[in-house]
Structures are given as C-alpha cells and as structure tokens.
Amino acid sequence: MNTLEEIISENRKYLDRGEVASYIPELKKANKNALGLYITTLNGEEYFAGDYDTKFTIQSISKIITLALAIMDNGKDYVFSKVGMEPTTEAFNSIIDLELKNLNKPLNPMINAGAIATVSMIKGKDKNEVFNRILEFTKKLCGNENLKVDESVYTSENRTGNRNRALAYFMKSTGIIEKDVEEVLYAYFKQCSIEVTCKDLSRIATVFANEGVLPWNEERVIPKEIARIVKTIMATCGMYDASGEFAVNIGLPSKSGVGGGILAVAPGKMGIGIVGPSLDKKGNSIGGVEVLKDLSEKFDLNIF
Ligand code: GLU
C-alpha cells in the first residue's frame, strides 16, 4: 500500500466517532464512511487515495471564493468595513456575536453571518447574475466546466435555513446588508450547494498556493494581495471555532464545510482536497483533520 492509502486507512477509525450534518435534511444522505484525499502539486502532479471520487456539496468552503470575489469587486477597505477579520469562539451559525461584539458587524467572512454579508457585496444586476458569477469563477478556479448545483441540497437549505434568515434580516436591520435579503440568501444557499469532489478542492487550493495564478496555464485570476488576504483569513478563521488548534497541530491555511470537505493550501507547493462527511462537534471532518495532521507531519508542510 502506498503512503497516502495508508494514511487514509489508518484514520478511518475516527469516522465512527463523528456524525454527518443533519440540520440541513438533505445532508443526512452523505456517506459517513467515506474518507478520501486528492493532492495537486504546483507542477501538475496528482496523487489521490481512498474515496477521493465521492461527490459532496462545497458548503462553507465556497466562502473563500466569495470573499475573493467580493474584494475584487469592491476593494478590501469596503469589504472589511462591513465584515471583521477576527476569529470567533462561537459556532459558525451563532447569532450572539452579531449583536454583542465588533460594532454590529459580523466577526469574520468565514462564519455564516460574515459570508452572507460578503456575498451581498458581489456585483450583479440580480440574484441570477450574482450567482452565475460565483459559479463561473468557481469553475475557473478548478478548471472544471462541469460544476453544477446539487438542486436537492439547495432546496433543502432554502426550506430550512431559518437561522441564516435570522442572521441576514438582523444585518439588513443594521445596514450591513443593503440588498434584498432573499436575493442575497438565494446566492448564498446556491453557492453552498455547488457539488464538488476532492480533486476540485485541491485545484482551487493550488490557485491560492500559487498566489492567485492558475498553475496549469499561468493566468492570473486573483490579485496577489487578495489571494494573501484570503489565505490569512483561512489560517485564522477557516476551521470554525477550532481554527487555533488546527493552526497549532497542522499549520496550513484551510477551510472546511459541513458537507465534509476540507480545502488546504500548502503555499508554493500544493493544494489538498479532503472528503469525510463524518463531522466532529465543531463541524469539521473528523477523519479529514486527522488525515491532514498526518500529511502535514509526513511531508513537513506546516507553514509556521
Ligand atoms: N450552508 C451551510 C449553512 O449555511 C454552510 C455551513 C458550513 O458549511 O459551515 O449552514
């Protein structure tokens, strides 16, 4: 067995200790036993192991894409006048921080409130144009023309997303969100429902590892400064309220999603995509975090 297959099989033991996300009913259908990884290096080598071809929805990992796009559309000063850059100790969908801390603006763009505020700043004449821009940009970052939305996950999120609605209406009341709330939530729920594989995540990660340039054709798609900002926010806020522990143990700018994905960036080296829908209590892939710990140690990837 090769090293990557060994890493996957050694960490399957953790899967039983977690649960698949269930607050979005459609996500309950995910395979709790899946665990896989895909690595794409900056010079185009690809390595994979385990259940790497599992499909899942990108969920919160889309927040790094919309953050890049919102800053490209509006500049960093405007975006960070409406969303903070500080980590939180509360859960990703928490309401409490919003009113109590940081002058009524969401703490950072990786929690739901901050991501909803971020997508509200993406330009477009209507919700369809805004979402199309997000989808086209995501396709470009993975070099995959076939990406599409899992409509059943979208419908499920839209039907049950009352907490996100509460966050969004609160932010509308304070002026953080200027657009129509339902238009903003349409784009947000759709962006979370884009279906991907670990390969897609690893390719998006290579673009950040390469400071905003597509490694496969040298096209610059994100300005260097913005790619750096996004990586920094990933390193400080990307793994929910476990971001500090993750930085200490693994040391890679990463973003997880409740679909079980983790995207990890090894700057100048490679992009890593993980799938493992069994989640720990904070919402991170329980097996995925262990896999990344092993990868980081074995290949000396910790950036700190
Ligand atoms: N669509 C999910 C939500 O809004 C994203 C959560 C996540 O992946 O952290 O609850």
TrEMBL record:
HAMAP family: Glutaminase (MF_00313). This is Glutaminase. Substrate binds at residues 60, 112, 157, 164, 188, 240, 258. The lineage of its organism: Bacteria, Bacillati, Bacillota, Clostridia, Eubacteriales. Belongs to the glutaminase family. It comes from Clostridium mobile. Homotetramer. Its EC number is 3.5.1.2. The keyword tRNA processing does not apply. Keywords: Acetylation, Hydrolase. GO terms for molecular function: glutaminase activity. InterPro entries: Glutaminase. The keyword GTP-binding does not apply. It is an enzyme of class 3 (hydrolase). It catalyses: L-glutamine + H2O = L-glutamate + NH4(+).
